[in-house]
Amino acid sequence: MNIQWFPGHMTKARRQMQEDIRLIDLVIELLDARIPLASRNPEIDQLGRGKARMILLNKADLADPRETGRWKDYFEAGGVTALALDSRAVSFRKAVQKAIMDATAEKRARDLQRGLKNRPVRAMIAGIPNVGKSTLINSLAGKTAAKTGNRPGVTKGKQWIHLRDNVDLLDTPGILWPKFEDQKVGMHLAMIGAIADHVLQAEEVSLWVIRLLRESYPGSLSGRYGVEETGEDAGILAAIAFKRGCLVKGKEVDYLKAANLLLDEFRKGKLGRISIEPVEESKMNQL
């Protein structure tokens, strides 16, 4: 399956971000802690050159905490402030606000030297679709300031949100990039729901999930569904279908229904805290 997804609104959003970057002091890149490499948009990386940078590993509550810790160390070794968090919680708010102040300390000092007092720090929140940007902003703002939804493409335009501590956040639509050089990147994005499901073959994506779990997290499938983890991946999907009643006319396997069920539960963390990309893969993509 060749995965590509770059609808028209992403072209418009990318152009708008290129125009807005001149107003920005800090680029906050929100990554999915389960796929820190695949969720790094190289165009955002280029866009943020010359600006203060910060990386937030979101949805850390769904990722393997050991791998998330290693990823945090990896990014900080590259000189980038990195925090792991669950954007739905509020406990991280002070840590994020402090990190914003630390990352922009030099810029604020220059403002004071120029006689500019109380100028808000302007930060752009950037990331791929469905990574939790709007949820993060709402948690930081302490109110519903940005529209959210558990699917890609909810935020279609930019919006400014003022936070305490004199910070203005620019929420931007989630954007991918026009072509994935490595189709593994596209599959990893598909596995977490960053690509609209209607452009995917759910059965094939679910087989990648099964393969990952068998190899890296043995016991998670048997523990959740009571199935054997031996044999072919398609056979395991069929066994899950029988266990969960994903059948047509009571006896034939409904592979699509079973695949969607597995993907939904995998994405919600019901099969455990799973990291798709181990830190060792970082050798393929240096900061």
What does this structure look like?
By secondary structure, the chain is an alpha/beta fold. 41% of the residues lie in helices and 14% in strands. The strands form two sheets. The chain has a six-stranded mixed β-sheet, with helices on both faces. The protein is elongated. The two termini are 29 Å apart. 41% of the residues are buried.
Keywords:
single chain; two-stranded antiparallel sheet; 11 helices
What letter string, H or E per element, gives the SSE order? HEHEHEHHEHEEHHHHEEH
Task: Report helical residue fraction.
Answer: 40-55%
Share in β-strands: 5-15%
Class by helix and strand content?
alpha/beta
Q: What would you report as the Rg, rounded to the nearest angstrom? A: 20 Å
Note the overall shape: elongated
Assembly type of the chains comes to single chain
User: How many alpha or pi helices?
Assistant: 11
Let me know the largest β-sheet. 6 strands, mixed
Strand order of the largest sheet: 3-2-1-4-6-5
Overall pLDDT level: 84
Straight-line distance between termini: 29 Å
Poorly predicted residue ranges: 147-156
Number of strands: 8
